Amino acid sequence: MKAVYNTLIENVYNVREDDSSRLEIFYKNILHVVPADINLTSVNVSTLTEKNQKYYVVIYKLRNRLTHKSLAKNIELEEEDCLKYMTAMIVCYLDLAYEHRNEINNIYNTQQKAGYLNRKRYADKILDDWSRYVSGFKYVDLQWSDDSSANKTMVQLANGNDRYVKLSGGAGSGKTTALMYLSSVLAGKIKSGSSQILPVYIPLARIIKEGKNMIITETAHILDIETDQVIDLLKDGEIFLLLDGLNEILDRFLKSDVEIAIDEIVSRYTKCHVIVTDRIVPNKNDKAKKMFLKELTLDEKMNFFRKNCKDQEIMKMIEERANTNRSVFIDLNKPLLLRQFLEVTVKNREIPMDMTSEYLEMLMEREMNDKKDPNIRYMNYYLEAIAWHLSGKERAKEGKILSVLGEVNQKMGFNVDTVMCLNLAIGMGILQREDDNSISFVNKGYQIYYAQNYVENNE
């Protein structure tokens, strides 16, 4: 008992005159065991568990002594007294816990089920992650078009009735940023007390096959609760799943398992919300509401610059160029491009006429650092070889392109799945698969850029 006591409040009975804080903690605990409105007369004592009556009486008597003293520290306790009172406190706590075990169990289950104790802390983490992610850039809420041609923002999706949505858009179009922004909006509602719905952002590229439903397993890991508690929250509609990058699962068997897991959640837990991002538009038979990124208007691009350009001279330069030569901004149709354009403009103090090299380099770096895709390290070799093969023409059959990639593997000594890498390049929005099953570059400028790199690297 002495060891337990010293663990709780070290050397409390040897405390110095000018250091009474630990004694006061001890006294407060004693007062707390027997509430002030309890009257332990001989009549009331008989209602307590008989074998523990003496412990309540011990604490009650000390409580009376404490309440009649102006300062708790005026009461001096010997070592034996401390052990006696501590023993009594522990016995009384255990006795009260047993007497009220049903109420305590209900409170515990409610708190565990709802994640009550951790919700605001969880929301704080999401908001901190969002602040670091944008790194000083202010978010411009993106417009999404659906089957009815209506436009919606991410905030509207958070407040709306669309329970299952699939968002599609090319590489760098802002899908990840939009989901993280939505997560921050929902976290803000938790902080304000207006909602208890927990946003759970999951990068699907990091999913591994584990258990019956890997989405539920990953959600439990993120929330730091048990899977059965996740299921309870899903049943009550208190989880908003934000599943990012279905296209980034390169293993087709794992991708199929993930799609089945998502469909199972949507079908079984009819109150929860699910948003999945992909780089291709889902097929017509998909149960999800299909939405795709609406191309940014010039006004929206200028709004982005005004929000994020702190240099008034540069902002004036951009506005003047928008008034005299809008063609400069036509290809700046993705948030990633807009951000890169602004950074290059501020750095060079002039508006760049071509952002191809900067954008493609940023795209590769982002894929390597953020998406953690190991295949990206081979991508420049493949794209340069494809561009050189396409010299004088715009497209080639997919079989021929895969043959070119195989030649690169042989020449460089790579042992890489070329089909997977080809699909990655298509998913990144650099290459595209035509209706006749041929492959071409999405932008003629991309083809020229990689062809020039091939010449320079093979001189």
Structural features:
single chain; alpha/beta; Rossmann fold; three-stranded antiparallel beta sheet; disordered N terminus; 4 domains; 459 residues; seven-stranded mixed beta sheet; 55% helix
Give a verbal description of the structure:
The chain is α/β, with parallel strands linked by helices. The chain has 4 domains: 2-99, no CATH class; 142-293, P-loop containing nucleotide triphosphate hydrolases (Rossmann fold), CATH 3.40.50; 298-353; 371-457, Arc Repressor Mutant, subunit A (Orthogonal Bundle), CATH 1.10.10. It has 20 helices and 10 strands. Helix 13 (298-308) packs across helix 15, helix 17 (379-389) crosses helix 18 and helix 17 packs across helix 20 (444-457). The longest helix has 21 residues, at 79-99. 31% of the residues are buried.
What is the secondary structure topology, with strand pairs?
Blueprint: H1 2-8, H2 21-33, H3 42-45, H4 53-67, H5 79-99, H6 101-114, H7 119-134, E1 144-146, E2 151-152, H8 154-159, E3 164-168, H9 175-192, E4 198-203, H10 214-223, H11 227-235, E5 239-244, H12 252-268, E6 273-278, E7 289-293, H13 298-308, H14 312-324, H15 335-348, H16 356-369, H17 379-389, E8 395-397, H18 398-412, H19 418-427, E9 431-433, E10 438-441, H20 444-457
Parallel strand pairs: 3-6, 3-7, 4-5, 5-6
Antiparallel strand pairs: 1-2, 1-7, 8-10, 9-10
Count of DSSP helices?
20
What number of domains?
Answer: 4
The Cα radius of gyration reads 32 Å
The total strand number stands at 10
SSE class = alpha/beta
Stretches where pLDDT is under 50 for at least 5 consecutive residues are: 1-22
Pattern of helices and strands = HHHHHHHEEHEHEHHEHEEHHHHHEHHEEH
